[in-house]
Amino acid sequence: MAVPVVVPQDLWEEDLPGIVSAWLFEDGDPVKEGDLIAELMVEKTSYDLTAPKAGRLKILVQPEVPFQRGDVVAQLE
Amino acid sequence: MNAPLNRTKRNLTIAKAMAEAIAEEMRRDPSVLVLGEDIGKLGGVFGNTRGLYEEFGAARVKDTPISETAFIGAAVGMACVGMKPVVELMFVDFFGVCMDAIYNLAAKNCYFSGGQSPVPMVLMTSVGGGYGDAGQHSQCLYGTFAHLPGLKVVVPSNAYDAKGLMLSAIRDPNPVVYMFHKALQGMGWLGTVKGAINDVPEDEYLVPIGKAAIARSGKDVTLVGLGATVHHALDAAAELAKDGVEAEVIDLRSLVPLDRETVLASVRKTGRLVVADDDYQSFGVSGEIIALASEAAFPQLKAAPRRVAFPDIPIPFSPALERPLLPDAAKIAAAARATLGKA
């Protein structure tokens, strides 16, 4: 069953959009739970996004595309 | 690259690889400390000191006032008495206010003291433009620093080299200028070149200072780049391959010492040379590499060497003006075709 990769609601404080500055795996790559899978950027501060479980990464939000906290940016299948 | 078989791939940005290298050296060696503007709580404007303040505290990870004259001078003094400071000059463009400490004190003290007082410091500094930050935040100035005896100069093009070169730089008894390109840093607002993100082992490993890398092998023309232009040269090589031209791409990695042997071996093999450098064209790296080939591989040259560099003007703020002036894959491929008589 696919598990959504959600940007945690409390990852940053203000209500600002973020972007993925870099996916650290390719679409379709297997990842382990806890792997650093992407770096996010809000204004000029970066945040880490880790895999909530093991699985095959399906990227839903491409770099530079704005999203909000709580959004789903990928799935693990 | 050299990854043990029992580990899985771990891709990192250059920013993270730099921070990891510094953290590993700080754990190993209590004399290593970090100072600079916004390198503490913020983790560095370019992300390269993230996590250090939390792990090592304010005494070893020191946010400084906005006075490069003071804190770069302080770093030189620290190094002279045996500490190993890693000091950040946020933008290389700011070197003007602290250059005396760098080129008259740090660079020369070892020589002046007959080797009794070396200066084991790392000056890490961001270089490069391409994101509309204008003429005082977009320069490379590779040639400026490489010109001055007494400083080692390194320029990583990917995360693996960024970590290994940082470990080598901190352990080096000489002042090392570590120039990291903003476009490769993995920070979204500066653009992110994908090729700069690669597999980085958790364990320590050294990338030797003074050793270039062959980023792609070929026999028809040598493309020499450093930092960001390595990636443009690789893109150019992929483009040239469609026409059956096999370009060899050399990543200089270090400017001082310069790996002349690797450059010459390639030029002697291909007989053709293009140098790509996003620093100003005149009196810089591109001229130095071409002079090297002319002096030591002249009989093997089949065509006049070419260079693709930034024109000798201040870097414009307007993206519409800046972008066309920067080296890119198309310009490098065109220069390579010219050396092959295919222009």
UniProtKB/TrEMBL annotation, chain A:
CDD domains membership: lipoyl_domain
Q: Which residues form the Lipoyl-binding domain?
A: 18-75
Lineage top rank: taxon: Bacteria
Q: Which UniProt keywords apply?
A: Lipoyl
Is Ligase a UniProt keyword of this protein? Answer: no
UniProt xrefs under SUPFAM superfamilies: Single hybrid motif
Listed InterPro entries? 2-oxoA_DH_lipoyl-BS, Biotin_lipoyl, Single_hybrid_motif
PROSITE patterns, alphabetized? LIPOYL
* UniProt cofactor(s): (R)-lipoate
Q: What is this protein called?
A: Lipoyl domain-containing protein
Q: What species is given as this protein's source?
A: Dongia sedimenti
Automatic annotation (TrEMBL), chain B:
The EC number(s) attached to this protein equal: 1.2.4.-
Would the keyword Oxidoreductase turn up in this protein's UniProt record? yes
Q: Which SUPFAM superfamilies match?
A: Thiamin diphosphate-binding fold (THDP-binding) (SSF52518), TK C-terminal domain-like (SSF52922)
Among Pfam families, the record links this protein to: Transket_pyr, Transketolase_C
Question: Required cofactors, per record?
Answer: thiamine diphosphate
The record's annotation in InterPro entries points to: THDP-binding, Transketo_C/PFOR_II, Transketolase-like_Pyr-bd, Transketolase_C
* Signal peptide residue numbers: none
Q: Which NCBIfam families match?
A: PRK09212.1
Q: What is this protein called?
A: Alpha-ketoacid dehydrogenase subunit beta
Q: Origin organism of this chain?
A: Dongia sedimenti
